[in-house]
Design brief:
mainly alpha
Length: 134
């Protein structure tokens, strides 16, 4: 892709069109679908803007929970490895390892921060309202 417009600038332009033209001049089903599309684009913008930070934080947190592993160099590999590490954590939770004790505290802390980061992408207004407290 070229330097300009950036991915974020393109997404911002589409979201602005949906917000300022489609939603402002329609009603009913078209207005609703315009709002859904605009919200999806805004969520994608937030995901792109924060993905490195959030994935790195999740990786570091899983290091505290499951043990240290080197993080892969490429984004697609990081996502695959996080899926595998979360599968391992899920298996340990299902096995009862997090039912009590210090491991439970570490897991709960990890889950709280991971869910918070996901909420900042999917619904930042809810996260800002203070409904998510640690």
């Amino acid at each position: 892709m070229q330097d300009r417009p950036t991915i974020d600038e393109l997404l911002e332009a589409v979201a602005g069109y949906l917000r300022d033209d489609v939603m402002a001049n329609t009603q009913g089903r078209t207005n609703f679908h315009g709002r859904v599309a605009m919200n999806a684009i805004e969520m994608i913008r937030r995901e792109i803007a924060t993905q490195e930070e959030h994935l790195g934080r999740e990786w570091d947190s899983l290091d505290h929970v499951l043990g240290i592993q080197p993080m892969p160099p490429h984004l697609s590999e990081v996502r695959e490895a996080l899926t595998a590490r979360n599968r391992e954590l899920s298996e340990r939770i299902r096995a009862g390892d997090a039912d009590s004790g210090d491991f439970r505290k570490v897991v709960m802390n990890h889950l709280w921060w991971t869910v918070r980061d996901k909420l900042l992408v999917s619904n930042p207004a809810l996260a800002a309202e203070g409904h998510v407290t640690h």
